[in-house]
Design goal:
- The protein is of the alpha/beta class.
- A hairpin with a 7-residue loop joins strand 9 and strand 10.
- Helix 8 packs parallel to helix 14 and helix 12 crosses helix 13.
- The radius of gyration is 22 Å and the shape is globular.
Length: 383
C-alpha cells in the first residue's frame, strides 16, 4: 500500500436492520431486559440472560408469558454438569420443582459454587435437546455476542395478536434468530475504515494505525501498518487478539504481551508488514468471562477446560474480520506470523493466500507454562 486509505464517507443510509436489531438486543440483555426471538414456523421465545436472573426478573417473565420457564445452556455445559444433551447443540432444562434464580446461576456458572463447579442435585432436571437454528440457539448466541455467560432463561410467547404487536405493547425488542446466528459474518463484511493516523512506536517509528468499524457501530478492529508493505509481494502479517491483561498490564499468565511487542519488532526488522489487532478478548469470550475462566484455572482446570466449564467452545474467535481488513488494505498474499495452524486454514477459507507460516515463539515462565502446553496439546499450536 503506497498511499494512505481514506476513511469512508459518513453513511448516507442507516446500517442494515438485522445488524442494528442484534446490537440493540445484545444491549438489552446486558441491561437485564428480556427480548423476543423469532424464526419461521417456530414458537417465539422470550429470553433473559441467566446473569440477570433474580426473583423479580423471573417473576416478570412469568407475568409476561404465563408459560413455564426453562434454562437454556450449551450442550457442552449441560454435559459438564452431569446431564446428557443428546444430539442437541443447545438444551432446555426444566424441573417439576421451582427453578430459582440462584439455582439457575449455579447451573450456568461454576464460579458461583464454593467448590468451583458443584451444581447440587440434578436428578429432578429434565433435558430437552434443541437443534441448530432454533430461537433457543439464537438466544444463547445473543448472550455470547453480549459477552455474557452463554445461558438464557426462556419461555414461549403465546398470544392472540402478532408477536411484534404483542412485544411492542410491552416495550420489548423483537429480533430474528437468523440475524443473531449470522451476526458475526454480517458484521465482518460491513467493516469500513473510520480513522487513520501516523503513530510512531518505540519499536517502529514508521507506523500508522487504521481503525475499522462494523456498520452497527460495534467495537473497532485495528490495523497497525509498519513501513510501506508492497501489495504485490507477500506481506508479513500477524493476527493478534486483544488481551487487556497481557498487552497492557504485562500479565505473566499468557504470552500475549510478548507476542504483541515481539511481532511489532519483527515486522520492523523485516522492513514492513501489518499487525491486525482484533477485538476478540479471551479467545472471543470477552474480558469478564476470561476473568471467570482464570478463577477456574486457579481451581485446577486448564485453559480450554475452563472455557468449557463456562459453556464456551475452546476458541470462539472469528477470522473473517481479519480477512476483510486485509482486503480493504489491498493485501491478498501474506506471510503469517503464527503458531496456530487454524489461523492459516481460516484465512485461506476466507480468500487470503497464506504463502508461509512464520513461527512466533517466546520463552515461557512459571505462570504460563501450563497455558502454553495446553495450547500445544489441545489446540494444535506448534512451538
Amino acid at each position: 500500500m503506497t498511499e494512505p486509505l481514506r476513511p469512508a464517507a459518513p453513511l448516507s443510509s442507516p446500517p442494515p436492520a438485522p445488524l442494528l436489531a442484534v446490537d440493540r438486543a445484545a444491549a438489552e440483555l446486558r441491561r437485564g431486559v428480556p427480548v423476543v426471538l423469532i424464526a419461521p414456523d417456530q414458537t417465539p421465545l422470550l429470553v433473559l440472560s441467566v446473569e440477570a436472573a433474580t426473583a423479580d426478573s423471573l417473576e416478570r417473565l412469568v407475568h409476561l408469558s404465563a408459560q413455564p420457564l426453562a434454562l437454556c445452556l450449551t450442550a457442552r455445559r449441560t454435559r459438564l454438569i452431569g446431564l446428557e444433551p443428546g444430539d442437541g447443540v443447545i438444551t432446555a432444562l426444566t424441573s417439576d420443582l421451582p427453578l430459582t434464580a440462584d439455582r439457575m446461576l449455579r447451573l450456568a456458572d461454576p464460579g458461583t459454587a464454593e467448590d468451583m463447579g458443584g451444581v447440587g442435585r440434578i436428578d429432578d432436571l429434565k433435558v430437552q435437546p434443541l437443534a441448530a437454528g432454533t430461537p433457543a440457539e439464537a438466544g444463547v448466541q445473543l448472550a455470547k455476542i453480549a459477552r455474557l455467560l452463554p445461558g438464557v432463561v426462556m419461555t414461549p410467547v403465546a398470544c392472540s395478536e402478532t408477536v411484534r404487536s404483542w412485544a411492542a405493547s410491552r416495550n420489548l425488542l423483537v429480533v430474528e434468530g437468523s440475524a443473531v446466528l449470522g451476526y458475526a459474518q454480517t458484521a465482518a463484511r460491513s467493516l469500513r475504515l473510520v480513522g487513520e493516523a501516523r503513530v510512531p512506536l518505540v519499536e517502529a517509528e514508521n507506523t500508522r494505525i487504521l481503525a475499522f468499524r462494523p456498520a452497527d457501530g460495534g467495537i473497532e478492529h485495528l490495523a497497525i501498518v509498519i513501513g510501506t508493505p508492497d501489495p504485490e509481494q507477500p506481506v508479513l502479517a500477524r493476527l493478534h487478539s486483544e488481551c487487556f491483561t497481557g498487552d497492557l498490564l504485562g500479565s505473566l499468565r499468557c504470552d500475549c504481551g510478548d507476542q504483541l511487542r515481539g511481532a511489532i519488532d519483527a515486522i520492523h526488522q523485516a522492513g514492513s508488514g501489518v499487525l491486525l489487532y482484533l477485538a476478540q478478548e479471551g479467545r472471543g469470550i470477552g474480558l469478564v468471562n476470561k476473568l471467570r475462566a482464570y478463577r477456574l484455572q486457579d481451581a485446577g482446570y486448564d485453559t480450554m477446560d475452563a472455557n468449557g466449564q463456562l459453556g464456551f467452545d475452546d476458541d470462539e474467535r472469528v477470522y473473517l474480520p481479519a480477512a476483510e481488513m486485509l482486503r480493504l488494505l489491498g493485501y491478498s498474499r501474506i506471510r503469517l506470523m503464527t503458531n496456530n495452524p487454524f489461523k492459516v486454514d481460516a484465512l485461506s477459507r476466507h480468500g487470503v493466500q497464506v504463502e508461509e507460516r512464520v513461527p512466533h515463539v517466546f520463552e515461557t515462565n512459571s505462570h504460563n507454562l501450563s497455558y502454553l502446553r495446553t495450547k500445544a496439546l489441545k489446540g494444535g499450536h506448534l512451538f
